[in-house]
Specification:
Layout lengths: L2 E5 L2 E4 L4 E8 L6 E8 L6 E6 L6 E3 L7 E6 L4 E6 L8 E9 L11 E2 L3 E6 L1
Parallel strand pairs: 2-11
Antiparallel strand pairs: 1-3, 3-8, 4-5, 4-9, 5-6, 7-8, 9-10, 9-11
Length: about 120
Amino acid sequence: QVQLVESGGGLVQAGGSLRLSCTASGLIFSTYAMGWFRQAPGKEREFVAAINWSGGKIDYADSVKGRFTISRDNAKYAVSLQMSSLKPEDTAVYYCAAKIFDMTNLRGEYNWWGQGIQVTVSS
């Protein structure tokens, strides 16, 4: 049974930083691309960042480029999202997702999802 478990969310002031982590189990982690998505109240779930199986290919949404950094540790079955210079519009539930083989920014292509974790940025 595949499980993705997010951690590290919380409340932070604008301009601050948070680091989200996602630990995977039940899959061969090194064969999966990993992504982060987010969903704000009343909005659709949107792409944030993705990383391929080796960490050699990365993609970001324009809204987070230069502020967020995705990374992975295949030995620990973990992917992280370092978020800096946070803005109130970054407030959302953040989801970790896994996709076999190639990475993509398309939500519907991901096979497995975590339960999500709240990130709230106060102004």
